[in-house]
Design a protein that fits this description.
Mean pLDDT: 85
Strand order of the largest sheet: 1-2
Number of strands: 4
Low-confidence stretches: none
Number of helices: 2
Structural class: alpha+beta
Strand content: 15-25%
Shape: elongated
Distance between the termini: 46 Å
């Protein structure tokens, strides 16, 4: 009897996964419409030392009027490893965004 419960649970999870994949394939913009709580919000004020030169300060004012990406990453994160090459290439493009990395839990 216990095996039937596990089997039915597996079927339910497989159906949910298949439904999500089916929705994503039918609507290519499906994943891009996820709302972000930070859109149209001002950047919080900060004043931090530069990691390369602690005598130099990094502030929010230095980012005003520029396109930039805050990339939160960790050396323990396999997806972060995969996206690293793409982000480097993106930052090297003429007019490309400034990319700021935040190392999480290392």
């Amino acid at each position: 009897m216990k095996r039937w419960g596990v089997f039915i649970g597996f079927l339910v999870l497989a159906a949910l996964l298949a439904g999500g994949i089916f929705m994503a394939q039918r609507d290519p913009g499906f994943a891009r419409r996820l709302p972000s709580a930070m859109i149209d919000k001002p950047m919080p004020a900060f004043d931090l030392p530069d990691l390369q030169d602690p005598a130099r300060r990094v502030t929010a004012a230095q980012f005003q009027g520029r396109v930039w990406i805050l990339n939160v990453w960790g050396s323990w994160c396999p997806e972060c490893w995969r996206e690293h090459g793409y982000l480097e290439a993106l930052s090297r493009q003429p007019g490309g965004p400034l990319i700021v990395g935040l190392n999480w839990r290392d």
